[in-house]
Each structure stands twice: as structure tokens, then as C-alpha cells.
Amino acid sequence: MLDINSNISGGKSFSFEVLPPLKGRSIAGLFGNIDALMDYGPKYINITTHRSELVYKSISDGLYQRVSERSRPGTVAVAAAIQNRYKIPAVPHIICSGYSALETEYALIDLSFLGINNLLLLRGDKAHHESRFIPNENGYSHASELQHQVNRFNEGYFLDGTKMDIPATEHFSYGVAGYPEKHEEAPNSASDLQWLKHKVDNGASYIVTQMFFDNSKFYSFVDSCRAAGIDVPIVPGIKPIVNMGQLSLLPKTFKVDLPSELVSEILACKDDSQVKQVGVEWAAYQSRDLIEHGIQHIHYYSHNAVRSVQSVVKQVF
């Protein structure tokens, strides 16, 4: 069985996250992005999962029909293709957002058949047309509920309570998300930490954080976790900035702060090529500082930033 915890121990290492190709696109482009990072020895690859969204499609005579459509299907298939091709763990996201419990069960069955035993369990984002998160009918509101389903599956039970026979080697190991700057919907940091400990106490074997740009916030988060009795590995998530627009987009989307020094360096850039270089230098600085503070494994969010991540890991690893 491939195992994340064993893969991220024993010296400095990294992993990264990819998106499935857009509907109708070839997987060749994704493989090209992964190939760019394989020479540096990544330990595992995350694959995001995307919910369906309501879109309007023209039908006739100026009329439009509202339909549910998923722009990036294929997470299970992409995970299988990656693990088969590169022989390192593929870690698909399993999310609440947009999925019923039964759809999750089907995904777990497929992943088990494929020998993909590592997962990242997340609530996921609200739909674009919703002002707050609304679970799918017969779905979940929280990752902790999703976690319960995976635990029951590991114990050998389907949703309807019937028993199955699953060899121990096919049990799922999983991580959960942590937020150094607090989840946007948590009333306070203490509440956020309480729920994180609940997930760890109930079987999460590691935590990977939301992106951050100020390492001191990560160190404070780790200290708070340890003080609360959370003793699993906590993997920092790093994202290189690649364009000027991300100065406003990243704080708005991910509810993270950008340090004044970083903002000043980016505002002094003449174009996005200079911004990209600043992003590489900042991510490399963060990475080296984390390693100097005893953090052995770093996770990179490589969406639209594969070449930047390549430049960082080339310097650091």
C-alpha cells in the first residue's frame, strides 16, 4: 500500500497539486506539467475535484436553459493514470461540495479497485451562484461527516449498512486541510482548531495547510496545534505568485494576507514576467526558511504556476 506518511519522512521533500484537464482537453498537457517536476523527486501528487455548476446554454430563438455542468471531470481516472504512469502516490480530493454520499461511495469503490489508497478529505467550496455553502441533497455539510463515511467504508460497511469484505491493504489513509489564518467561516481560531483536532482524533493521519505567504503564521499555527494535542504531520502549502492580478485575487478567494514586503516588491514590477520572478524568489525564501525550522516536507499549489514551482524546487531540493 502506498502511504503518504512514510513518503514524507526521512529528509526534505516536496509534493504538488494539479487540476484535471478541462472537459474535452487531452491529458497530455497535464503529463507535460508533471514531467517538468518529476526530475526533482516529488513524493506524491494531489488531484483536485470540482463540483458541478449551473450554467446557461442557448437552445433556440434566444432562449437559454439552465443546466448543471462540471468543467473538470475525471479526478478518479486522472489519479489512476498518474499513479500508474509515475509510480508515486496519487492523492485525489474527496469533497462534500456538489456530491451525494452515494456518489462518494461509488468513488471510494472505484479508487479501491484501482489501488489508490490515499485521499485528501475536504468540504470544498460553495457553488458560484450561492451566497453560502449548501450541501448536495443527501450529501454533507462538513468534512467531518465525509470522514465518518470513509471510516465506515474502511470498517467494511456500505452506506446502507451491508457488510463487505475489504482486505486491509485496501483501506484508505487520508489527510485533511488546516488553515493558518483560520477558515473563513469559523467564528474564531479556537473553534477552527477544535474542529481540526476532532478530525485528527477520528482518523486523519496528516494535515496540509491552505496557502500562506508569511511563515510566522504557519509557525504559530503549528504551535497552537501541538498545544491542543494535535501530533500528526502538518504539511505547509506554498503557492508562487505569477501575476499582478493575484495581489487582489488571492486574498479575496483564499482569505489570506500578503506581507507588506511582498506587496511592495510586486507593485514595483513593470510586467508579469517580473512578478513571476518575485513570486519564485518569495516561495523559495519561504521554503528554505521552513526547512531551516525543521519542516521536512513542503506542498506546492502549482495551478497555473508549474514553471514557477519548477524554479523553486530546483533551488531548494
Please characterize this protein's 3D structure.
The chain has about 325 residues and is of the alpha/beta class. Helices cover about 40% and strands about 20% of the residues. The chain has 11 helices and 10 strands. The strands form 2 sheets. The chain has an 8-stranded parallel beta barrel with strand order 1-2-5-6-7-8-9-10, surrounded by 4 helices. A two-stranded antiparallel sheet has the order 3-4. Helix 4 (about 100-115) links the parallel strand 5 (about 90-95) and strand 6. The relative contact order is 0.14. The model has no long low-confidence stretch (mean pLDDT about 90).
Mean pLDDT: 89
**For the CA atoms, what is the radius of gyration?**
20 Å
Strand order of the largest sheet: 1-2-5-6-7-8-9-10
Query: What fraction of residues sit in β-strands?
Result: 15-25%
* Major sheet size, sense and barrel closure: 8 strands, parallel, barrel
Residues in helix, % = 40-55%
What is the β-strand count?
10
Morphology call: globular
Which structural class do the helices and strands define? alpha/beta
What is the count of DSSP helices, taking H or I runs of 4+ residues? 11
pLDDT < 50 stretches: none
| Assembly of the depicted chains | single chain
How far is the first residue's CA from the last residue's CA?
A: 26 Å
SSE arrangement, N to C: HEHEEEHEHEHEHEHEHHHEH
What attributes characterize this protein structure?
317 residues, alpha/beta, eight-stranded parallel β-barrel, two-stranded antiparallel sheet, globular
